[in-house]
Amino acid sequence: MIEWMIPCLLFVPALAVASLVTCVWLKLRPGESTINRIVAGAFGANAVLCLGTGIWLLAHHRFSYEVSLGTFFEAEHYTFEWTLVVDGLSLTFVTLTSFLVGLIGVFSRRYLHRETGYLRFYFLLCLFGAGTTLVALAGSLDLIFFGWEIVGFTSTLLIAFFHERKKPIEHGLRAFITYRMCDMGLLSAAVWMHHTVGSSEMIQLGSDTSWYAFNLPTDLTNTTIIGFLLLWAAMGKSAQVPFGGWLPRAMEGPTPSSAIFYGAISVHLGPYLLLRASPFWNTSIAASAAVVSIGILTALHATFVGRVQTDIKSTLAYASMAQVGIIFAEIGLGFSTLALLHIVSHAIVRSLQILRSPGLLADYGKLERVMKQQLPRTGGHLEFLVPASIRPWLYRHALERGYFDSILRDYVVGGFLSFVRKIDAVDRRWAAWASGDDSERKGTRVKVAREK
Questions:
Q1: Which of 102, 120, 184, 244 is most exposed, with minimal Cβ within 10 Å?
Q2: Confidence of residue 330 (pLDDT cuts 50, 70, 90)
Q3: Nearest Cα to Cα of residue 148 among 194, 202, 186
Q4: Are 200 and 193 in contact (CB under 8 A)?
């Protein structure tokens, strides 16, 4: 029975995605209620399957189960196998994903009523749920990378959902570039594991109650390198410093997608990856210290910056960043069970807060009109914990968002663009010299001077 229940956890969302793709391919125009039933029904069924899987495991006194779906392809010494793993970590994450995606599907029926991109939103939401389920059930880092990319793709497109405006497209592109930069760490970690361990498949360590985790290399140096690469990948997906600038900008997307992506599921994929790599943090002190340092630095940064935000969605975005930073620190310190409980509780609370935010603004406006004055500001007790001499510096730091945006813009991106322009100028001058075209050389010099 369990042999088909576990694959169905992945096939049910995939079937819903295929149904919506078929509607687009055949140029069908299903009604909003039909689209809603497909998505909400699929993830509602997935939640029931998760419950059934958990009951079966408890009834048979099992704490984990592994199912192989065969080999996808082989190339000399490399074999890509579809292996799904169910344990306490993956089953919790899939249940949370199924419940929240189904909830968002029901909520969005009225929120996006008569929206021109109604079908597109539900397709991306369903694809996101399938990708997250694949990440949670994957039995190897190779398979995790496959679902990881699906989640990043849908995240970018939902940030740029209102593509008739300029800002959503710019912010979606910023998130896409951040994902691309940090996903190189995940891909490099997979390659490094194949060279040092021989495989990126997860194994069950310790007693039968333990989670599946990545296998460790034999030496400490390779363990530390792979740990830093996995941390790099998790930092981008979970908006940790210095890559957190895309998270508040991601709120340009619809409120339901902001709730499911940046309040509940997507930002917690980084901690999920770190939990799967828990043996690395237990073995390498340097990698563990890096995880804790990044988490604490992000929590402090997001706390200060979030206090000066003027809109509720940006405030909630920085609140999510701070909580995920604390989860990073818990994982680095070895509190894996506490981190998992923190993920579940934070995901539920934050998603509901983001869904409630538009109505809360309306309620506050009505209350202020009745009282004929602004409501008092909360959180003032934190100011007494900071010496008065450094409050102005912290306030400026918060207004500038820690200067991370300006550093990335002026030195990293700006330096790269300056280097590319110089290479382009040299290439143009060499081409003009080779062709003997003096006018081209003069025009190139004038253009370079104008750009400078």
A1: 184
A2: very high
A3: 186
A4: yes
Structure tokens at 394: 């912290």
Quote the CA–CA distance of 17 and 136 in Å, as a whole number: 18
Residue-level pLDDT at 448: 46
Q: What percent of the chain has pLDDT over 90?
A: 41
Q: Model's pTM, two decimal places?
A: 0.87
Within this chain, do residues 34 and 99 fall inside the same structural domain, yes or no? yes
Say if CB 108 and CB 124 are below 8 A apart. no
Residue 241 falls inside a structural domain: yes
The domain total for the chain is 2
Give the model's confidence band at 6: pLDDT under 50 very low, under 70 low, under 90 confident, else very high.
Answer: confident
Residues 355 and 415 in one domain: no
Taking phi first (over 0 means left), then psi (-120 to 50 degrees means alpha), and beta for anything else, what does residue 206 get? Answer: left
CA 429 to CA 377: how far, in whole Å? 61
Q: Domain range spanning residue 439?
A: 403-451
Phi-psi region of 80 (alpha: psi -120 to 50; beta: other; left: phi over 0): beta
Contact in structure between 85 and 202 (CB atoms under 8 Å): yes
Residue 379 DSSP class? -
Compute φ and ψ for 205, nearest 5 degrees.
-100, 145
Asked if residue 314 and residue 442 are part of one domain, the reply reads no
